[in-house]
């Protein structure tokens, strides 16, 4: 059976930047574009050249891409030719092989927002698209507010589409700009548009998520005949966001009937990098990934209830709709105050700790987890700290060293250039093999910048651990997250630290205290101890 080709058009670099609080630098846009290209999307919309310096710089610096690089702009303004419209010229001067122009297709917006006649708007669409085609560009027409326009005045909305098609547009993209059109309406209207002479293999769909149905609306359009889907990584976009490609792509590749009817430019190998790509974007945005999002969320394949975990042990398909590894995610059976012994024994087994059913230590571990979670600890993501807790109750945690005391100071002073700078310094005293060792470390980096008190503590702790020193020389702190778990005067700080070593292993540890430095130090201690346990250190 021959499958039809579906084309994926990514608008993260433009629509994504409309998200409140999101502002990409040029370097960040280049990094995201490279990840999108590796993923296998067909078009990468880089932004609106001429609209802001960042977008213009992106088009100047971006290199060759497998995907078709696309510039975004708007149709020419009334009263001037396409060749003499400086706004349109800035878009075409970016030199991209494809250009997407947005134009009005809702009569209300034409007369109210643009203040021109309906005929003038159609003439602007046709002239703009023809201008692009004459330059040898692949022309796309974004039919703004199309679904609302179609419901208000279908003949006029269709006239706008026909004007773009007859002028040579390769793709005509139907936009649910306000995000209020439901999937069944989208499917019916797309079908009507095709019946009115706009070929499905020239139709795209662009949905917004204001009713939480952007992905469903896109799929409805595809089943009705549209063959291009526009969306963003992680569903970024103004208001409630755009159609989320991290949900659309695996659905198209893994779910019937889509996987049987269509093919895309995304390979199964690239699909296995989807979770990593999603989290890379969140790292760039310096925001916490949403755990509950489909396919790529940290909790997408988490089984917290004991009944579920017991079934998962027998057959993962009992509570999982796909193999998490297909999208680069993983199954998690977290330890929590709802955990049962089936969860616990499975988690211990994954750590290489085989414990017999009915072992008294199992109940003690569960009680300790529940008690600590009431204090603010969370072991859902800090699996290394959980392992240390479990090993302690099982009598399998060596005492490598003892921390006798630590101190951190932060000094604010003027440097030789008469500028105010900060300097953090930490002192850590540990006892190893009966010998006390005092280590002092500053947090200044090679560029002369203060990396903060936690960095100073980390360097001091790892400076001299006697016979264990060699085992920790290749570990480094790669992420540091702080959460306030309660409010007001009883606020408790939870710190999660991610560490990595030369073997590529990455692990997370947790610390909790009313004092952020104390919570950080607890997490740092766990990170070092887990590393020593895994490298076979003996206390």
TrEMBL record:
Pfam families: HCS_D2, HMGL-like, LeuA_dimer. It catalyses: pyruvate + acetyl-CoA + H2O = (3R)-citramalate + CoA + H(+). Residues 6-272 form the Pyruvate carboxyltransferase domain. It is an enzyme of class 2 (transferase). Keywords: Amino-acid biosynthesis, Branched-chain amino acid biosynthesis, Isoleucine biosynthesis, Transferase. SMART domains: LeuA_dimer. Pathway: Amino-acid biosynthesis; L-isoleucine biosynthesis; 2-oxobutanoate from pyruvate: step 1/3. One of its GO terms (molecular function) is (R)-citramalate synthase activity. The keyword Amino-acid biosynthesis applies. InterPro entries: 2-isopropylmalate_synth_dimer, AIPM/Hcit_synth_CS, Aldolase_TIM, Citramal_synthase, LeuA/HCS_post-cat, LeuA_allosteric_dom_sf, PYR_CT. The keyword Amino-acid biosynthesis applies. GO terms for biological process: isoleucine biosynthetic process; L-leucine biosynthetic process. Gene3D superfamilies: 1.10.238.260, 3.30.160.270, Aldolase class I. Its EC number is 2.3.3.21. Belongs to the alpha-IPM synthase/homocitrate synthase family. NCBIfam families: citramal_synth. This is Citramalate synthase.
């Amino acid at each position: 059976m021959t499958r039809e080709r579906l084309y994926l058009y990514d608008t993260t670099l433009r629509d994504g930047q409309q998200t409140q609080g999101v502002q990409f630098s040029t370097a960040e846009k280049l990094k995201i574009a490279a990840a999108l290209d590796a993923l296998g999307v067909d078009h990468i919309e880089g932004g609106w050249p001429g609209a802001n310096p960042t977008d213009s710089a992106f088009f100047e610096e971006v290199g060759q891409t497998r995907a078709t690089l696309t510039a975004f702009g708007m149709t020419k303004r009334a009263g001037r030719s396409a060749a003499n419209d400086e706004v349109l010229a800035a878009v075409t001067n970016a030199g991209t092989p494809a250009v997407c122009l947005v134009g009005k297709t809702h009569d209300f917006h034409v007369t109210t927002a643009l203040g021109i006649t309906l005929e003038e708007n159609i003439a602007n669409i046709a002239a703009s698209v023809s201008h692009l085609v004459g330059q040898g560009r692949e022309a796309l027409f974004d039919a703004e507010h199309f679904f609302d326009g179609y419901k208000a005045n279908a003949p006029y909305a269709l006239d706008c589409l026909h004007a773009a098609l007859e002028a040579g547009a390769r793709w005509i993209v139907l936009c649910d700009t306000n995000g209020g059109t439901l999937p069944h309406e989208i499917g019916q209207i797309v079908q009507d548009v095709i019946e009115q002479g706009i070929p499905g293999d020239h139709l795209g769909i662009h949905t917004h998520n204001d009713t939480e149905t952007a992905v469903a609306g896109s799929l409805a359009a595809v089943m009705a005949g549209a063959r291009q889907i526009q969306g963003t990584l992680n569903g970024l976009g103004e208001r409630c966001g755009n159609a989320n490609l991290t949900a659309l792509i695996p659905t198209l590749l893994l779910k019937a009937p889509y996987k049987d009817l269509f093919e895309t430019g995304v390979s199964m190998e690239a699909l296995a990098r989807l979770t990593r790509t999603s989290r890379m974007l969140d790292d760039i945005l310096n925001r916490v990934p949403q755990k509950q999002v489909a396919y790529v969320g940290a909790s997408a394949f988490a089984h917290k209830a004991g009944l579920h975990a017991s079934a998962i042990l027998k057959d993962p398909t009992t509570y999982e709709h796909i193999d998490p590894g297909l999208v680069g995610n993983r199954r998690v059976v977290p330890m929590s105050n709802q955990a049962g012994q089936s969860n616990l024994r499975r988690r211990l087994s994954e750590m290489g700790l085989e414990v017999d059913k009915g072992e008294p230590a199992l109940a003690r571990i569960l009680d300790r987890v529940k008690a600590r979670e009431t204090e603010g600890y969370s072991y859902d993501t800090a699996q290394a700290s959980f392992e240390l807790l479990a090993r302690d109750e099982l009598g399998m945690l060596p005492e490598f060293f003892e921390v006798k005391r630590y101190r951190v100071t932060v000094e604010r002073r003027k440097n030789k250039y008469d500028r105010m700078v900060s300097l953090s310094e930490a002192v850590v005293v540990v006892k190893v093999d009966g010998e006390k060792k005092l280590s002092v470390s500053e947090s200044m980096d090679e560029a002369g910048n203060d990396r903060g008190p936690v960095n100073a503590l980390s360097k001091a702790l790892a400076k001299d651990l006697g016979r264990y020193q060699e085992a920790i020389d290749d570990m480094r702190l790669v992420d540091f997250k702080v959460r306030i778990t309660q409010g007001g005067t009883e606020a408790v700080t939870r710190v999660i630290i991610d560490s990595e070593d030369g073997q590529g292993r990455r692990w997370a540890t947790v610390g909790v205290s009313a004092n952020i430095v104390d919570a950080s130090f607890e997490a740092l201690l766990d990170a070092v101890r887990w590393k020593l346990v895994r490298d076979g250190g003996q206390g």
